[in-house]
Amino acid sequence: MKRFEGKVAIVTGAGGGIGSAIARRLSSEGAFVIVTDVNVEAATQVASDIRSEGGNATVISADLSRKDACFSLVEQAFGLHNRVNILVNNAGINRRGNLLSLSDEDWDISFTVNLDSMFHLCRAVLPHMIVAGGGAIVNTASQWGLYPAPNHIAYNTTKAAVAAFTQNLARDYAPDKIRVNAVCPGEIHTPMLEAGVKRSGRTIADLDRLVPFGRIGKPEEVAALVAFLASDEAAFMCGSLVEVTGAQAVA
Ligand SMILES: NC(=O)c1ccc[n+]([C@@H]2O[C@H](COP(=O)([O-])OP(=O)(O)OC[C@H]3O[C@@H](n4cnc5c(N)ncnc54)[C@H](O)[C@@H]3O)[C@@H](O)[C@H]2O)c1
């Protein structure tokens, strides 16, 4: 029996590095995956890869910076499957800058995409999970939300808020058997990290040297943790912030 046989999972940011690995992992273990991203082309490619591997995936494009899009995504998922067992809030953006160099717009959009989207999506999905007698929510925070790296005040603050949001939601809805946890990845090799490396003038090899384990992480290594937290094997995990960093404490 696969861990997610018969379960429906929404994965946001599923066109990206970590999100696509999560979508593939959940699908490989039996889930019906809703692959959602603002980048329709990327999401379509991921869903098509999943299907060619024998999995079940549907694309729903959504710009999660819009509240109505968050609610519509959940409604469409229910229209298709009549249930959502797992919500993975993974979509995110990373705007660089310190307090004085960051624009107002970068501060606002960071909160809109990284935090408000999960607020709206959780509000849309939670009533259904409560009626169903339980569910699992996994949020993607970051080690930078726990130990801030320099020059990323907006990103780091949103990720600290994601950690706090996760613990609050877990505390309030544990009696309803909704398990809410967050993963806090370190440096993971994805398009977001590639863009950051380019901006900073560093190389992947430079980042590898910063990690005590000797290399940066792979999206699949985050996906394995997300799958565990979403599964019944993590039945007593609720409100946990789990780091996956190769022992790197601060970037
Ligand atoms: N890569 C890392 O080193 C790292 C480390 C810690 C945390 N994270 C977090 O992991 C998550 C995934 O990041 P990634 O590295 O895979 O980046 P990525 O850029 O490859 O993927 C992010 C995805 O989110 C989507 N997205 C952005 N804005 C959106 C919006 N408004 N609506 C819908 N989708 C939107 C993008 O289109 C993209 O496909 C993010 O929350 C990120 O902050 C990444």
UniProtKB/TrEMBL annotation:
UniProt xrefs under Gene3D superfamilies: NAD(P)-binding Rossmann-like Domain
GO biological process: one example: monocarboxylic acid metabolic process
Coiled coil: none
An example molecular function term from Gene Ontology annotations: oxidoreductase activity
Superkingdom of this protein's organism: Bacteria
CDD domains xrefs: SDR_c
Alphabetized InterPro entries for the sequence: NAD(P)-bd_dom_sf (IPR036291), Sc_DH/Rdtase_CS (IPR020904), SDR (IPR050259), SDR_fam (IPR002347)
Keywords: Oxidoreductase
Record-linked PROSITE patterns: ADH_SHORT (PS00061)
Family annotation (SUPFAM superfamilies): NAD(P)-binding Rossmann-fold domains
Family classification: Belongs to the short-chain dehydrogenases/reductases (SDR) family.
NCBIfam families in alphabetical order: PRK07231.1
PANTHER family given in the database record: 3-OXOACYL-(ACYL-CARRIER-PROTEIN) REDUCTASE (PTHR42879), 3-OXOACYL-[ACYL-CARRIER-PROTEIN] REDUCTASE FABG (PTHR42879:SF2)
This protein's name: NAD(P)-dependent dehydrogenase, short-chain alcohol dehydrogenase family
Organism encoding this protein: Rhizobium miluonense
